[in-house]
Amino acid sequence: MNLAVRDIRHNFGRFALTTVGIGLLLMIVMGMGGIYRGLIHEATLLVDQVGADLWVVQGSTRGPFAEVSRIPANLEDRVRAVPGVAAAWRFVSHTIQREHRGQPLRLVVQGLAWPEDRGEWVPLVAGRALRQAHYELIADRSLGLPLGERLTLGQNTYEVVGLTRGMVGSGGDGLAFFTVSDALAVQFDVPGEATRLERAARRARVENLDLGRVTPLLAERASGPGSELPALAPPQVSAVLVTLSAGADPTRVTATLANWPDVTVYSTQQQKDLLLSGMVDKAKRQLGLFRVLLILISTIIMALIIYTLTLDKLHDIALLKLIGARNRVIIGLILQQALLMGALGYGLAWWLGRYAFPRFPRLVVIEPPDLLLLAGIVLVISVLASLLGIGKAMRVEPNTVLAA
Amino acid sequence: MNPPPDSSHAIVTENLTKVYGHGNTEVVAMKDVSLRVGRGEVIALLGPSGAGKSTLLTAIGLINPPTSGRIYLGGELVMDAAKPKVDLRSFRRRHLGFVFQKANLIPFLSALENVQVALEINATPPAVARCRALELLAYLGVADRANNLPAALSGGQQQRVAVARALANEPGLILADEPTAALDSQRGRQVMELFRRVAHERGAAVLVVTHDHRSLDVFDRSYEMEDGRLLVEAKPLTPSF
Hints:
The complex is a heterodimer of chains A (404) and B (241). By secondary structure, chain A is an alpha+beta fold. Chain A contains 13 helices and 12 strands. Chain A has helices at 3-10, 12-50, 75-80, 180-188, 192-207, 210-214, 216-222, 250-258, 268-312, 314-322, 327-356, 368-395, 400-403; strands at residues 54-58, 71-72, 85-100, 103-112, 124-127, 136-140, 150-153, 156-164, 174-179, 236-237, 239-244, 263-267. Chain A is elongated and about 115 Å long. Chain B has one domain (9-235): Rossmann fold (3-Layer(aba) Sandwich), CATH 3.40.50. Chain B contains 6 helices and 11 strands. By secondary structure, chain B is α/β, with parallel strands linked by helices. Chain B has helices at residues 53-60, 88-95, 111-121, 126-139, 155-167, 185-202, and strands spanning 9-20, 27-38, 42-46, 68-73, 76-80, 83-84, 96-99, 173-177, 205-209, 221-226, 229-235. In chain B, strand 8 (173-177), helix 6 and strand 9 (205-209) form a beta-alpha-beta unit. Classes of the chains: A alpha+beta (404), B alpha/beta (241). At the A-B interface, helix 1 and helix 10 of A face helix 2 and helix 3 of B.
């Protein structure tokens, strides 16, 4: 006869409510782990999906994700000339927040090196890849932009031609893929008045110089578009990505690029490490501490509940001792209830999590090793929680029955 | 000089003394109590409150060790002063049955399970325990309430289930502490007669602490206790029926 089950059946309402409470707590613990996994997944998703072998960024920086990196777009031509490099393409990535249909819209603008890269590698759930050099984008579904939606950014309007799912940046904002030139246009778009003021300032600076006074054409050029001024640098990009030729030695190519004083080279793994050790690390520690606290709280709550349940049964336990029950019968009664509460709470947490976690604003990734680890933790806290009650039960004297 | 205890004696106590506290707070609850109870005997222990009846009963029940003296149960020395000579819990499980003023049934177990648990605790296989528990409930006339929780039973029915639990492992000695106090006189007498029946049919000794003088004819012998001392036999052994 299982005394634990009989007692639970008798006090089912209280046991069920308590188990639901424990289950919700465990769901939060599970969710914390899942949010951490989600952070890692989101942080490294783009690096994984882009599929580059090497990342060439601004010298002495840890860009383009951990910090700002600016390199000239034409660096890609230099990189292509390095033996062992199969392809090199510019990479533009920046986050913007605009208003769309009266709602704030936050998105990560991702530049695709048109025409070589049209976004065919992007996993689409609807629509198609880019087909023209301007005014099209592929958006992640989390942005809430349907196919065919027209989005005005700066002076231009872009049409959503493809949809992806789960493509988010390290901050959890959905990705939007444009051609590099459109991405730069979005990034450096300034109001007309600002352009006019800049040109006027440029003209004034030229007119104050001797060279400007004797060269009227120079002053005239200074009033024109920046792209027609050879003295101004071409647009800058975040990084240049490199794919190596088959059989090429990555160490040699890296060594060659690393010798250039104006750039720094990272492998894909190094880029992921930068992301994880920098941006995700603090979040990881924060979530880890919360998990530890929640586990402690769960243990204390379970211990108090099991202790209270034991106190309620103290007279029955004394009676069992009086009629000769072995200690293992009494320990089994308390421990089995704690384990059952832990197991049911865990199952409930898992079941609720399946429905709740996909509705969280950030990605929650629950992996089997994490589930196994949490199961182990629940087992341990169930045993720990029952110790208080077991201690009390072991101390109760059989003659307590007579006192009652 | 009494002969040495042997297996024909269910209970033998020699000079049992129980002292609570010490110094100024010392209270002698039981003093030099020597008692012999044979197998199959039904003994009443009478006396006013605080006379030491329950102290003697719990000492013999191995749940309240004496300060000095010896206890033999079934001819075996089980307590020498406060020092146990056997595994007390195991001995209680195999040889003793208890009935109290309150039935003390486990509230989350049915009547049947309350009896069954005593058997399973003594390593009886569950199926056998269930059959035996049903037999005992039938013997005590409460088989029809076997599946009821204690809360659904009357006081008399609960006490019968408690007696069934006490009999479950066929103990050599049943100790009852005011088992009829919570029952009306008719039910109280029924329980007392039940003890007598059990003692005579099953050969178990029954020691009953009671205030109920109306049922004294049921007992083989009765003793009076006063100020911790066991007085002479209140009534000699005579056939009751």
